[in-house]
Design a protein that fits this description.
Strand content of chain B: under 5%
Shape of chain A: globular
Order of helices and strands of chain B: HHHHHH
Strand order of the largest sheet of chain A: 1-2
Distance between the termini of chain B: 66 Å
Radius of gyration of chain B: 21 Å
Structural class of chain A: mainly alpha
Number of strands of chain A: 2
Structural class of chain B: mainly alpha
Largest sheet of chain A: 2 strands, antiparallel
Order of helices and strands of chain A: HHHEEHHHHHHHH
Number of domains of chain A: 1
CATH superfamily of the largest domain in chain B: NADH-ubiquinone/plastoquinone oxidoreductase chain 6, subunit NuoJ
CATH architecture of the largest domain in chain B: Up-down Bundle
Number of domains of chain B: 2
Distance between the termini of chain A: 48 Å
Number of helices of chain A: 11
Number of strands of chain B: 0
Oligomer: heterodimer
Helix content of chain A: 55-70%
Helix content of chain B: over 70%
Strand content of chain A: under 5%
Radius of gyration of chain A: 21 Å
Largest interface: A-B, 31 and 27 residues
Largest sheet of chain B: none
Shape of chain B: extended
CATH topology of the largest domain in chain B: Four Helix Bundle (Hemerythrin (Met), subunit A)
Chain lengths: 330, 168
Amino acid sequence: MNEMLISLALILVKLGLIFGVVLTMAAYLVLAERKILGRMQLRYGPNRIGPGGMIEPMCDVIKLITKEDFIPDRADKWVFLFAPGLTALTALLSFAVVPFAPPLTLFGREIPMVVCDLNIGLLYIFGLSSLAVYGVVLGGWASNSKYSLLGAMRGLAQLLSYELALGLALVPVVMSAKSFSLTEIVMAQSTWPNILQHPLAFIIFMISVTAESKRTPFDMPEAENEIVAGFHTEYSGMRLGLFFVGEYSNLIVIGAMTTVFFLGGWHGPFLPPVVWFIMKVLFVAFIFIWMRGSMPRPRYDQLMHFGWKVLIPLALLNVVVSGAIRIALN
Amino acid sequence: MTTVLFYILGFIMLTATLLCITRRNPVHAVIYLVAGFFALALMFYLLGAPLAAAWQIIVYAGAIMVLFLFIIMMLGLAPQETPEGPGWRRWGPLVLLSASLMVCTVLLIMQDPAAGKEIGDFYLAPQAVGESLFGRYVLAVEMVSFQLLFATIGAYLLGRPLSKGEGQ
């Protein structure tokens, strides 16, 4: 009984910590993105509230909560109301399997630094990222606006196409770790991170994960100069905010995924493992913000052609080649 | 504990499926069906097959139902307008056929000697699935993948742009 209570308490503490850290990080990523983009465009970015604009995210949240929560007249009310939550939920749930440090020994008991080390962890994350499309599609459809519907359909086709390349890019990683468990994938990279072993897989992964997260240069579902704001055109107040919570938590998920699958997870010299992990995650997030500041958006058909005719064949070839090398070396 | 979970999941699955086939709005039907798939995936997990659970979510909920949604959106139905359903005359025979099928299934299950026995502890690791798929059943896997290849080529043939003088 006592044992069960302790493990329950441990899980709750870990959940609270992860939620607190991720949501705070998501809020400050918005600020970081605005400031970095500002610097890239030779302006200051937000700097009015608090020292260097540090209280800006809280003000944004207060603004979003106090705004009117508008529901269009002919919208499908219930679907319209729960779609933004779905987006945020799928992003936040992914953290359950992300290991952020090696197991810690405290008072004679070993505490794994992950909420749940599933032996199908990679597939779990993959499943959640394939469910993320529902938030976009249902939100866009329920708004009953042609721009929202166009954005939703674009998002659907894009996410579905790039999921294949994403999955195939991860096959070599699973091959070298011989496991779907994220902890074991990190353990397998104790000498060399996967980015050196599978550079092509890393490039394919980064491109398809950008398309999966609907971020610039692949933000066609919300391309503001063609379809207003795409699937979230009709949303306002905190429901719009939830879409952004989803987007920025997803950015951290992507950072964590890249770190775990390719950058060696918590491994690194001198500094404690958690610090290495967070630094790597933030570095990947920075690359995504950098891309947003420097890349133009391709045309929609170019995106689909690139996905199906270049990325997927390349990923398949990569699976075959790295499998062959693996067999030849044994 | 397992039995309780089994019945809860079974109840969710049946309710969701029933709601799915009675909704007039196709998008609502899809949402209920996806909820049913989730219950089914958890059921697989409960039975000791986590890989099957993951496939259920990734393939069925994450890909096939999304394609369904795509088709529904192509139809261009606004959320407020729902199509008229067929009357009793149209779906009466179908209900009758399904009901008789169900009676047959129940009778068969009752006759099955393995029915009502405990499955016992069973856990299927992902590695074991991979080994048997690409070891013992490799021929079947290859045949299925060839079929998929044929289907892809067929889809390409149907969808390719028409050359001049064709299709007139």
